[in-house]
Design a protein that fits this description.
The protein has 351 residues and is an all-alpha fold. Helices cover 60% and strands 0% of the residues. The protein is built from 17 helices and no strands.
Amino acid sequence: MRRFETGPAPHWPARNSVRRVMLLVLAALLPGTAAQVWFFGIGVLVQVLLAVAFALALEAAALRLRGQPLRPFLGDGSAAVTGWLFALCIPPLAPWWLALVGMVAAIGLAKHLYGGLGHNLFNPAMVGYAVVLVSFPLEASRWLAPAGLAATQVTAAETFAAIFAGCPPDAGWDAVTGATPLATLRELAGAGRTLAEVRGDPVFGDFGGRGWEWSANFFALGGIVLCLLRVADWRTPVAVLGATIALSLPFWLADPGLHPSPPQHVFSGALVLAAFFIATDPVSGCTTPRGRWIFGIGVAVLTLAIRRWGGYPDGVAFAILLMNAAAPMIDRLTPTRIFGHRRRAERGDGG
């Protein structure tokens, strides 16, 4: 007779399977991805397809090397989510090999080197993005100007030529690319311009970066649905965005000519995408309720610090990786009450 080892009662059946969670995450990414395609062109979609294809191929190779079955792990959707999130972080006209390098770092190093799904210490997509950002800063930061702002639009043929052959658009890179809102803010503020003058740059929109602000809104829409479905825990995105607003508001109120407004911080980069889809990673993030608050606040603090004093305009990827490293310790310091056990105050014995 075959025996199965089980833990002691009580048992709590899981509400979601990995496959269902990943499929819901992919569905929630659709509105924001569509908005990003609208503002930055079809290259966004090409990068998503490339990164997902590389992620699945590398996942299959890693599983084969480890002697693991392919079908259950390839079909769970986790590699596709990693590739999709990575693709949204890189420029639409980035060369094809950038996605390959990023996925080697994400799937090969960050995921399977630690034992595969559920064992990775760091978020794989952010590891991949950090590797290409540090290794290939030009290719990883050459963003297209949003729709309506570029001197000339990039056609589909030019998009494929740039990605797969490395050919610049006919009008040249300078005519179709531009600094991101956060890079513009950093450059002009460093040159002594006031924020009122900085916001006069056409790269800024109504409350954040032009194009970036509405992409962020649609990512937030998908993220809120995930929280309502209890696929993602609401505490982490609320902590990230709430702490960003709470920390930046006093400085902006004290001197709005020197410090960016809270909406500027929230809607000018990848903070909303990271808050709902990356910081909520149940593997590399915190698992306890109080730990999720601390994790989210830590992401906000580090992001603002890197933006202000660091070497990169948008430091959210590095902030998440640093908090990933701290997550195990945060979980140990914020344990939840064990089912059936009373709190110390309820016991009244001090033990």
